[in-house]
Amino acid sequence: MKDTLNHWDEVYRNKDHSKLSWHQDTSTISLRWILEYAKNNDPIIDVGSGVSVLVDNLIDSGYKNISLLEISPIAIKATKDRLGKLSSGVDFINENVLDLNQNKTYKVWHDRAVFHFLTNKKEQHKYLDIINMHIAIGGYFILSTFSNEGPKECSGLDIVQYDKDKITDMLAKNYKLIRNIKESHPHPNGGVQNFNYFCLQKER
Ligand SMILES: C[S@@+](CC[C@H](N)C(=O)[O-])C[C@H]1O[C@@H](n2cnc3c(N)ncnc32)[C@H](O)[C@@H]1O
Questions:
Q1: Distance from the CA of 40 to the center of ligand 1, in angstroms?
Q2: C-alpha to C-alpha distances, 25 to 22, 51, 104, 157, nearest whole angstrom
Q3: pTM of this prediction?
Q4: Which of 71, 119, 124, 187, when mutated, tests ligand 1's pocket best, judged by the most ligand atoms within 8 Å of its CB?
Q5: Which of 22, 74, 143, 148 could tie 12 with a disulfide, CB 3.0–4.6 Å?
Q6: Which atom of ligand 1 is nearest to the CA of 46?
Q7: Distance from Cα 61 to the centre of ligand 1, integer Å
Q8: Domains in the chain: how many in total?
Q9: How much distance in Å is there from the Cα of 47 to the middle of ligand 1?
Q10: Given the CA of residue 97, which atom of ligand 1 is nearest to it?
Q11: Range of the domain at 76
Q12: pLDDT score recorded for residue 1
């Protein structure tokens, strides 16, 4: 776990944040789906938020109950600095998602390019237990990973690519897949990376 923290702290300490492969100037599908599925006061958590502008976009859209969970304190500080005064309205959780144990459920759990780093079954199951504890019945799990046409690594780490069948198999017990769309994400340094977005609704 310490390695995970060190890896990400180094990334955010040493690299130009706007040139990170996953960087977006503005959030795309994640934002569109959250706008559709959550009301302004619904609790929303962005897991592995990094320095994503999803939070800025949500605040601009009127959302008031946003939590950001991120392992790297450097990414959290950068996000707080960018948000300025607006950061006081955001709940920052500086933690490994695999250690999350809050007495709270969320209407939307958003994960863009975090779950796909969990390459072993034990960690994947742990993550799924954690989302089960923290997503309200009827709430949504919005997940974005690399697709089968996407890269096999992200930030120099191995990842797992997902498609509709794999996600459905993993989550069928408690979730219904309601949407799935691929996106060719423009890499800030040229080329594209193929992402797969899934929206699942928690049924039980
Ligand atoms: C590829 S980046 C994606 C960042 C952001 N979701 C986005 O779309 O811009 C992955 C992020 O997840 C964070 N992360 C990786 N493993 C994590 C873990 N186990 N717990 C919490 N955050 C983690 C990293 O620090 C990094 O900010």
A1: 24
A2: 10, 11, 31, 23
A3: 0.98
A4: 71
A5: 74
A6: 6
A7: 23
A8: 1
A9: 7
A10: 20
A11: 2-202
A12: 56
* pLDDT tens-digit series, residues 54-95: 999 999 999 999 999 999 999 999 999 999 999 999 999 999
CATH for 58: 3.40.50.150
Q: Whose CA is nearest to atom 23 of ligand 1?
A: 48
Average pLDDT, the chain: 97
Distance 71 CA to ligand 1 centre (A): 7
Residue 11 Cα: closest atom of ligand 1: 25
Q: How remote is the CA of residue 83 from the centroid of ligand 1, in Å?
A: 18
